[in-house]
Amino acid sequence: MPELPEVETVCRGLAPHLEGRVLVRVDQRRPNLRMPFPPGFVERLTGRRVESVRRRAKYILVHLDDGAVLIAHLGMSGRMIITPERPDSPGKHDHVVFETDAGTIVTFNDARRFGFMDLASADALGDHPMLRTLGPEPLGNAFSGPVLAERLAGRMTPIKAALLDQTVVAGLGNIYVSEALFQSRLSPTRIASTVSGAKADRLAAAIREVLGRAIEAGGSSLRDYRQASGELGYFQHQFAVYDRAGEPCPGCSCDVAATGGVRRIVQSGRSTFYCAARQR
Length: 280
Ligand SMILES: [Zn+2]
What we know:
Bound molecules: zinc ion
Helix content: 25-40%
Oligomer: single chain
Structural class: alpha+beta
Shape: elongated
Distance between the termini: 29 Å
Number of helices: 7
Radius of gyration: 20 Å
């Protein structure tokens, strides 16, 4: 599933191909993804110039010259593929195909169809049902230790669950929550409301750092993609603890035979990876 850094990478990959370009043709190849496409989807997009490609949480926001915004979510398996010309025959899971006045083809492919696309007015973007309740953007200027502490205050759930709650912080998924808790030396089982003061500062900084590092890795992959398939959305990245159960902890010089190394536990049905020695 694409996480925030991958969505950011997709936006950065799309921007140079879409910004300033007119969408001369839009093919919608089925009536719905996870939800139906909005009425008049093709008509409302065709002929519009793209002003900017932005990201909010894990949503791709394509701002158009008539004040509308195309909201796209990659769901579980969605990807954007950029090609210099239209493929001879569309792939089975190529659900939407955009063509710009430069002749570039952007294909939205989504095998599992958990993604969605919608149109909203830029003025009312914040009222969109998918965006309305989102917490602060973790890479935005408004996100800090005190802001995080305020949003965690009074929450009696484990910090792991609180960070996955999109109303607390927007766009964090399972992988980067494990990574940020490891980086900030906070136990995933700690009660959320106890993360305040210096702990909240440490956690906010760690969230920014792990996301920032992943986006850098995505940037490198983007340079490779330009040469390769034109496919945006997924890249290889090394994690400190995620999916590394039983491996030596990269933060301690602990004896794996004695400690068991990185632990995996299940919280709210999702795997959490952490070091019990380092994270308290
Ligand atoms: Zn450790």
